[in-house]
Design a protein that fits this description.
Blueprint lengths: L1 H7 L4 E4 L6 E5 L10 E5 L4 H15 L4 E4 L4 E6 L3 H11 L8 E3 L3 H8 L23 H7 L4 E6 L8 H4 L4 E5 L4 H10 L3 E2 L14 H8 L5 E4 L10 E4 L6 E4 L5 H4 L9 E2 L25 E6 L4 H8 L4 E6 L15 H7 L6 E6 L18 E4 L14 E7 L4 H17 L4 E5 L7 H13 L2 E4 L1
Parallel strand pairs: 1-10, 4-10, 6-8, 7-11, 12-13, 14-19, 14-20, 15-18, 15-19, 16-18
Antiparallel strand pairs: 2-3, 4-5, 5-9, 6-9, 7-8, 11-12, 16-17
Helix pairs in contact: 2-7, 12-13
Length: 457
């Protein structure tokens, strides 16, 4: 018990790593890529290399997890072969242990050695004519999307070197090779497969910056590697190719349209729900409410109007608007001549002023390196409010997520966190069409899991 208390109150260190300053990546022929054999020659006098080595040693030996960036979100990593280390993940996140974790690997050789640990095993390239523990159905998607934001389900090795808590009792495990060179270098230096869910407190929005991790997990973990912002912004797509037809279990960074271009995947189907599911989930992110800020989230499919705000504010004086394609704050603006009519249409007057959070451009590209917006400006004058000092007026904080699904995905989690930090009580989010591709579907999946209510206006 005393050891547990010390772990909870541990000092959290943030170490900056620029992967370009770590060392040289050396690839072997014929693949000359991360799918083949490769090595990392560290720069001897680089503090970036020293920081990454320190993190790798903690991954290999400590029971406390290490937070690190991937191309999707920041992960909370631990040695996937040690149950004590995996327990540290659940403890730090305060997450139930009945949710499987994704295993991250740095090479196909490392993956194959989970099935056959004998020296020299697993060094051959993908080849359907040879015996391979990686089922042939996955060869085309691995060649196309690895390293990258795609997780595949594989049969559990017998005997399995993975800690039982990684799979939550399932006969399969999820595995991916991240495209982040920093993540690959860290896993390579640790020399162990790394189980890593998102590095946030359970149910909170996933972290896309080191500052998000520190906010949620300060005092619960020892080390955060700060590698800057994540460029995908939503977690990996999870697929099951062990069934026919193959199934997408979680939408993410790889679209269903591009999956269908791969041999054997033409008839892949959607196999996930946007709500929380019961029973043992087949993949992470399927069971519990996820991605939620402290504020209530209301997902709106349709137009922005005063009546909608007034109905769902419930007396709150601070609201957030996360806009995408069509919402504009000008939709709330009324002239003095028409204020009586508009107020009547809204079921009564709503006095408010606008605070713009960020810029109309993509928030992600205008964010500081800590993941927060760099600008916050008040714009008074809407609905007859002369300035933002009216104590009876609702403060509305507006942030623009962008218009394309890819940019919205990059900005989503940061925006929810930023609006929380601005002290809003309720966040109205403009939905997008889930039929615009799997990235849009991934955005809507995350929003529906975060939302208390979905409205079609």
């Amino acid at each position: 018990m005393e050891k547990q208390e010390r772990n909870i109150e541990t000092s959290t260190q943030v170490l900056s790593v620029d992967v370009e300053q770590v060392g040289d990546f050396l690839f072997e022929e014929p693949e000359h890529s991360f799918l083949g054999n490769w090595d990392l020659q560290l720069f001897p006098a680089s503090h970036h290399a020293a920081n990454l080595l320190q993190a790798a040693q903690k991954l290999k030996k400590s029971d406390l997890p290490v937070a690190f960036p991937t191309e999707t979100v920041y992960g909370l990593g631990a040695d996937a072969t040690r149950g004590e280390a995996i327990a540290g993940i659940y403890k730090a996140k305060r997450r139930p242990a009945d949710n499987p974790l994704i295993v991250h690997i740095s090479s196909l050789t490392q993956l194959r050695q989970l099935f056959d640990p004998s020296p020299g095993s697993g060094t051959t390239p993908l080849d359907a004519t040879r015996e391979d523990p990686i089922p042939t159905i996955y060869h085309s998607v691995i060649s196309r999307f690895w390293p990258g934001p795609l997780t595949i389900l594989l049969p559990l090795p017998k005997p399995s070197p993975l800690a039982p808590s990684v799979t939550a009792g399932l006969p399969t495990f999820g595995v991916r090779m991240p495209s982040s060179r920093l993540a690959l270098a860290l896993i390579h230096l640790a020399g162990v497969p790394v189980a890593a869910p998102s590095a946030n407190a359970s149910t909170r929005p996933s972290p896309t910056a080191a500052a998000h991790v520190l906010h949620d997990l300060s005092g619960r973990i020892e080390l955060i590697i700060d590698g800057g912002l994540c460029h995908v912004g939503v977690e990996s797509t999870v697929v099951d190719g062990l069934v026919d037809p193959p199934v997408v279990l979680r939408p993410g960074g790889v679209s269903i349209e591009t999956l269908r271009q791969c041999p054997g995947w033409k008839h892949v189907v959607v196999g996930y729900s946007d709500g929380a599911e019961t029973g043992v989930p087949r993949a992470p992110g399927m069971k519990y409410k996820h991605y939620s800020p402290t504020a209530r989230v209301i997902l709106v499919q349709g137009k922005l109007n005063i009546r909608l705000l007034k109905t769902h504010l419930r007396g709150c004086m601070n609201a957030g608007l996360a806009t995408t394609k069509t919402w504009r704050v000008e939709d709330l603006a009324v002239s003095e001549a028409s204020i009586t009519q508009r107020a009547a249409e809204a079921g009564g007057a709503l006095r408010y002023f606008i605070v713009r959070n960020g810029t109309p451009d993509a928030m992600h590209s205008n964010a500081s390196n800590d993941g927060h917006c760099s600008t916050l400006t008040a714009t008074p004058g809407y609905t007859g409010i002369a300035d933002g000092k009216d104590s009876d007026a609702v403060r509305v904080v507006v942030t623009d997520l962008g218009t394309s699904p890819v940019i919205i995905a990059q900005n989503l989690f940061s925006a929810l966190r930023e609006l929380d930090m601005q002290g809003v009580d309720v966040i109205f989010v403009e939905g997008i069409g889930a039929d615009e591709g799997l990235t849009a579907a991934a955005v809507m999946n995350r929003l529906r899991k975060a939302a208390e209510l979905e409205i079609r206006s």
